[in-house]
Amino acid sequence: MRIASRAFPLLIAALALGYPWLVPNYYLVYAGALTVMYAAMATSWNLLGGFTGYVSLGHSAFFGLGAYGTGLLVTRLDVPWAVALPVSAALVTALAAGVGVAAVRVRGASFVIVSIALVSMTNLVAQGWRSLTGGSSGLQVPSPFPGLHRGQTHMAFFYLFLALLALALLTWWYVSRSRFGAGLLAIREDEDKAESLGVPTAAYKVTAFALSALFVALAGGLYALWFGSLDPIFVFSILIGSNMVLMSLLGGVRHLYGPLLGALIVAPAGEYFLIALGETQIHLTATGLVLILVVLFMPDGILARFTRRRAGPSIPDRSAGERLHEVTP
Amino acid sequence: MTSLRTDGLTKAFGGVRAVDGATVELLDGRINGLIGPNGSGKTTFFNIVTGMIRPDAGRVLYRDRDITRQPPHRIAHAGIGRTFQLCRVFPRLTVLENMLVAVRRTGLRELLAGLRDRGEVERARHWLRRMGIEHLEDAEARDLSYGQQKLLELAAVLMAEPDLVLLDEPAGGVNPALIDRITGLVRDLNAEGRTFLVVEHNMDMVMGMCDHVIVFDRGAPIAEGPPSVVREDPRVLEAYLGV
Amino acid sequence: MTLLLQGLALGVLTGGLYALLASGLSLYFGVMRVVMVAHPAFLFLAAYLTYTAHTAFGVDPFLALPVTVPLFFALGVAVQRLLVARLAPDNLAMMSVLLTFGLALTIEGLLGTFYTGSYRSVSMDYATRSLTVGGVHLPYDKIIAFSVAALTLAVLFAVLVKSRFGRALRATIQHREAARLVGIPTERVAGYGFGVGLATAAVGGAVLALITPFFPASHWVWIGKLMAVIVVGGLGSVVGAALAAVLLGVVEGVVLVTVDATWATMMFYVFLFLTLLVRPQGFFGGRLAHRF
Amino acid sequence: MSDPVSDPMSGPIAAEQVLALEGVVAGYGRAAPVLRGLSVTVRAGEVVCLVGPNGAGKSTALKVASGLLAPRSGRVMLAGRDVTGLTPQRLLALGLAHVLQGHSVFREMTVAENVRLGGYTVRDQARLDARIEVVKELFPVVAERWGSMAGLLSGGQQKQVEFARALMLEPSVVLLDEPSMGLDPRNTQVVFDQIDLMRRAGVAVLLVEQNARRALEMADVGCVLDLGRVHISGPARELAADPRLGRLYLGGQPAT
Amino acid sequence: KTDEPGVAQSPGQQQGAVRIGISLPLTGDFSEPGKGIQEGYQVWADRVNAKGGLLGRKVELIFRDDASDPNRVSSDYESLITQDKVDLVFGPFSSRLVIPAAKVAESYDMLFVEPAGAAAEVFEQGFTRLFYAAPAIADDHYNYLADYLVKLPADQRPKTAAYASLDDPFAQGTAYGLRDKLAAAGIKTVVDEVYPPETTDFAPIAAKIAAAKPDVVVGGTQFEDAVGLVRALQELKVQPKLAAFSTGPTLPEFPDAVKDAAEHIVSPVGWSAVADFPGNQEMVARYREMFGSEPHEDAANGYTVGQIVEAAVNAVQCVDPSPTCQDKLTDHLRQGTFQTVVGPLSFDEKGRPEQAHMIQQYVGGKVEIVLPEQAGTTGLVYPKQAW
Ligand SMILES: Nc1ncnc2c1ncn2[C@@H]1O[C@H](COP(=O)(O)OP(=O)(O)OP(=O)(O)O)[C@@H](O)[C@H]1O
Ligand SMILES: Nc1ncnc2c1ncn2[C@@H]1O[C@H](COP(=O)(O)OP(=O)(O)OP(=O)(O)O)[C@@H](O)[C@H]1O
Ligand SMILES: CC(C)C[C@H](N)C(=O)O
Ligand SMILES: [Mg+2]
Ligand SMILES: [Mg+2]
């Protein structure tokens, strides 16, 4: 059992590394890279959502900012892409920390609203600030690998996204076993109580928010370099943000591999519905119904089905009187 | 040495003056009781001391440091721990997790340290045993009975090893046999040098356990002293015991 | 100067519309603690039904209300009883977002399938005229929207704050066991609460149909704005939401005529963030902070 | 209002009418049962006091009695009829009231609304108003803070509002889960006086108290619950005097 | 990989149907026009197949829905080209989707003729295989109208103009094309508004226009906002001498949506049902037969794409995805002039069409072509009647 659980991730990792060489054509490499990108973003989302319970439908704001940041640095300032990417991600993270200070002041439902507002705002800015971003005409970013043909570019980005995913997973895992992570869980449960136990809730929340923005921004930056054309209404789209939430939730927000599993299911399933039912809008209904069913019947995600069920408190076999008697001197 | 001192603390909610010029001094190493009728401002006093409410006026000094407007977690780091009257635990964390969250965290190193440090787990189990809820270690806190949650909250606060412990009705809802044990526990910890401030309506407990009792009425102390003296004070009899 | 007045007047009227469209939301959010992302989708469902009633039977949008309002009420009860009620209460905020997001997609897909992606609109003659007072034009359609909004909100206020049902609803949400113990049929009450929320969507949809053309994906545009309204107003406060709606309507109108449309839309979010920084519980009342 | 049983305000009903739990097995979710064959009987005009360690199943027993929790097996009898599985709403109509443990005020409603909701099932405004006057007198804080948000009151004040809310009806069977918790001595006295008054009026009271010595002093029958079963039961005063019991369940030193 | 560039296409592909890959926004924001384009493609394929196909092979259209999302549009063309190994690709709808789509086609050396990427930006990306199959790019849509206004006698000529445009490359292109020409001729710009796509309330914009009392009102619009603007202008009693809006008025739902206010509104249009360009009447008839309704501009644009590619295939006698064949097709397109249902079309080196859009106007409740005069069904009514 133990060996199996150790070997399993290794097997998956090997499969992931070999994937681009195993598939017969570049389209599948492309689709794979897209899925890995989503997996990385969902895992990153889960750094905030899974630990603190703050549901952000607006993480696409960071995706878009990361993408535009990288794109603008590359096109407007001729910064090499390998520099532009981390610089832009760092800027977005700083911005996220700033926004976080205001955003995490509200809890639960209000935070969802704030996150939606965040996407709408960034979209308005990117669209309205035409002289900088190109507005609705979009921004065209040159390929970082002009020497490679399209298929090879997909390969390169597949591995870049894979590295990002690995980084996000590692971060999540690390946080989950640290006191920082425990503090975040406490925040999810009861902020005032956590604060009284010495958890600096505001700082923790902002840190989680910024950390989770960081990886999404990196994904956005890579996306800009890979995809090459950015359009505000599509990168700052609430649907991208909701995809992250859906994937995390489907897989299970309490598990390291939950969002990854979710991405592996949702991305191909989306393709499938579109191809099978694409002639009418009924595929939206299909997606919607699947979402509803997941929420109703697998609220803790797929992985929760395979792990320990919640057992009620155990009943002691001796009466309280007896136990008490024993420890009392 | 003084552990906690407040100078003229005042807090009004709308027209209600919940705490009204409360000046209190607690000496280090004592078990202090805080009693007073319902609504006399005891919980609000706790909330101000622990930074959860900002006073309208007055100062809070802990070991001669002004902590008046510090955020609650700073105050917790300074060594003040508290429980809540309406018992609060982390409902979807297990009992053991509840305990581990409470470990005092200060520096960055501590923060990034692993959670399930063997020593901490042992310590947590020790406290759970002393509260008689060790068999519930893996249960989620929301599945506990009211009294069990109350005990868990107390255990968690002690896990953080505070120097000054504020307890808001530790005996409420707790089985009397356990109350005796809690009393014993408080005494033991006090012998180790911890200071307590206990709000309680259970007079047997207060009078039997405390070295010093402060009586609140309408947001300020009206009497204080050793239990035997306070119990006979006519103002206390009238305002509190209702005789 | 007239321009400014004009902007102001239009802002007030539009604010009324926003208040109407947001009223259901403030009921779910504030009173029932459900994040109802699908409300705008239901608004447009109502708009489509109004459209069908109008084109197929030549019914005036407002005359369709006696049918659509009870229908939506029933729909709301069904949604609550069959879906929302099954969510775990300790994670309601997160789960309800996803559930209602799924609902919104479902509705959009169905609308797209039945009505195709084309734009639809209901235009009545009375909706193209305007009343002119001292050089300021007040379009009749907006006056109508405003009046309907005022009426609906008054009814909603009476139901929620003044009536026995309203008290029972709030009690149900605040402490379900205690509510059952004082004899409140909590399940039925919660269902009716949702029904009332959707009933406002029926009214809002009729007005919306009259005012603007729509297509199945139209609802996405409204989510952000309407939610900003209820946060600024203070979750759970019907009156607050109404005041905030008018305030934001005016700000939008004035900014539109003095600056531009991008800034006008941006104002919603600027106000939202200002509110959070200054008074997270909203400017006009709102819910008790959960402390201690 | 001709059927006295279905009128919650019709006051005490005949003396032979009792509440009885018979061999109740109950628990939460899929977990092992908490109550394992519990039987308790309360007669009209009698106070039965349940004591026991934390987690013994006292609150669970009350929830089964008031219909909040359906038992897995066993019966709940009220006034001679089997009411197992009826909703709290139906049981309330039959004259049964339950005051929960902990805090169960409607936090975001005013004290006034909270108290009025106590009489939710009563349509007769005049009668309600009369009751309101009574509870205001019993608990001055209810009158003083009539318009305040209940969630903002102090812990003990909230408890008073809850008790006041429960007193809005004049039920014939009352389940009280630690009514004195958080109350200062004066208010504790008021609550115990009220319980005594109810008993005199012929109401059957099932009381759970951790303030055990105090409660057993005034109760008629005491039951010690442990591990979901009645461990020992008997006349309340006898139980209180049993030294072994005292040490294990009632606390070391006797009341001073 | 089977799709490694340079790997010879299997000759077996030469048999069987000619497969054409198309991604369209069948859902989402652009679903309505997307559907229209699809119908145009279908009518064209139907006609070609009825006549024996392309180079004797049947034509098979493979549609994908991109849900109006540029991400999807890319993956669609990616999979159509590399997985389905289609012989040809046709373009999607909307400038916003054409650019990412063309990028993919370009990198696989596929010819990319598209029906709806009119914005100037489309042609500034350095695409070498892209052609826009309509008479003119967005900036030139109003050329005839501009000429007409500028040539009016001084006393009738408008003095001031107000512009309101949706923030969208195509919509803005149309409005600004006209604005620049009128401004150059001395017609003053008194209002110049841009509004984001989220805008739902047009009354304040109309108020701004009302305050400026312009002679001409120009809307760079799609549908929803065109209706919103017209209604708002009417309510605020703005009475210009000329009102022009792009896209909205050319859709069949428009007159119903604005009622009598449609009267005398002008709009650029690339195609007319009554024009007697070669094949136009045949298309109209075939469309009616297939879909049981009146054809519209989007369908015509789709059809035009088919006609152009068909002409090139017939001329160079090859139809397969190999770079050689795609090169030949592209070169041919660059050279010639093509007879289509929207008139003869030729392209410059960037793929821009070199002809002009017509101007339509609602006259007596009917759509009439009013400019250019030689194509017109009636004369332009100017000034327009009051709303
Ligand atoms: N947030 C608040 N808003 C308004 N009034 C408040 C608030 N918190 C407390 N009060 C009021 O302040 C007074 C003091 O309350 P506090 O909770 O401090 O009393 P307490 O001494 O702890 O009483 P108890 O013994 O009942 O717990 C009460 O009258 C209460 O209603
Ligand atoms: N909602 C719940 N879900 C699962 N288990 C529960 C739940 N509530 C209580 N339990 C368990 O049932 C047992 C009995 O709980 P109950 O609340 O009846 O105890 P109690 O006797 O009232 O204790 P206390 O004196 O602490 O109030 C406890 O072991 C508790 O852990
Ligand atoms: C003429 C239209 C079909 C052009 C299209 N609306 C675009 O965005 O370019
Ligand atoms: Mg208190
Ligand atoms: Mg209990």
Structure overview:
- The complex is a heteropentamer of chains A (329), B (243), C (292), D (256) and E (387).
- Chain B is globular.
- The mean pLDDT of chain B is 88.
- Chain B has helices spanning 42-49, 72-78, 95-101, 108-112, 118-131, 146-159, 176-191, 203-209, 227-232, 234-241; strands at 2-13, 16-27, 31-35, 57-62, 65-66, 80-82, 164-168, 195-199, 212-217, 220-225.
- Chain B folds into 2 domains: 2-86 and 163-239, Rossmann fold (3-Layer(aba) Sandwich), CATH 3.40.50.300; 90-143, no CATH class.
- Chain B is an alpha/beta fold and 243 residues long.
- Chain B is built from 10 helices and 10 strands.
- Chain C has 292 residues and is mainly alpha-helical.
- Chain C has 11 helices and 2 strands, in the order ααααββααααααα.
- In chain C, helix 1 (2-32) packs antiparallel against helix 8.
- By secondary structure, chain D is an alpha/beta fold.
- Chain D folds into 2 domains: 17-95 and 173-250, P-loop containing nucleotide triphosphate hydrolases (Rossmann fold); 105-170, no CATH class.
- In chain D, 36% of the residues lie in helices and 22% in strands.
- Chain D contains 10 helices and 10 strands.
- The termini of chain D are far apart.
- Chain E has 387 residues and is an alpha/beta fold.
- Helices cover 37% and strands 18% of the residues of chain E.
- Chain E contains 11 helices and 14 strands.
- Chain E has helices at 31-50, 70-82, 95-107, 143-151, 169-184, 203-212, 223-235, 254-258, 280-291, 297-316, 323-335, and strands at 18-24, 59-65, 88-90, 112-114, 130-132, 160-166, 188-195, 216-220, 242-245, 266-269, 338-340, 343-345, 358-363, 366-371.
- A 5-stranded parallel β-sheet of chain E has the order 2-1-3-4-5, sandwiched between helices. In chain E, strands 7-6-8-9 form a 4-stranded parallel β-sheet, sandwiched between helices.
- In chain E, helix 1 (31-50) crosses helix 9 (280-291), helix 2 (70-82) packs parallel to helix 3 (95-107) and helix 6 (203-212) crosses helix 7.
- The model of chain E has no long low-confidence stretch (mean pLDDT 88).
- The chains are: A mainly alpha (329), B alpha/beta (243), C mainly alpha (292), D alpha/beta (256), E alpha/beta (387).
- Chains in contact: A-B, A-C, A-D, A-E, B-C, B-D, C-D, C-E.
- Chains A and C meet through helix 5, helix 12 and helix 14 of A and helix 4, helix 9 and helix 11 of C.
- One adenosine-5'-triphosphate sits between chains D (28, 31, 34, 52, 54-60, 101) and B (143-148, 173).
Largest interface: A-C, 47 and 51 residues
Rg of chain E: 21 Å
In total, the number of domains of chain C comes to: 1
Order of helices and strands of chain C: HHHHEEHHHHHHH
**Average pLDDT number of chain E:** 88
Rough shape of chain C? globular
Q: Note poorly predicted spans of chain C.
A: 286-292
SSE order of chain E? EHEHEHEEHEHEHEHEHEHHHEEEE
The fraction of residues assigned to DSSP E strands of chain C is under 5%
Global structural class of chain C: mainly alpha
Hetero ligands:
adenosine-5'-triphosphate, leucine, magnesium ion
Number of strands of chain C: 2
Strand content of chain E: 15-25%
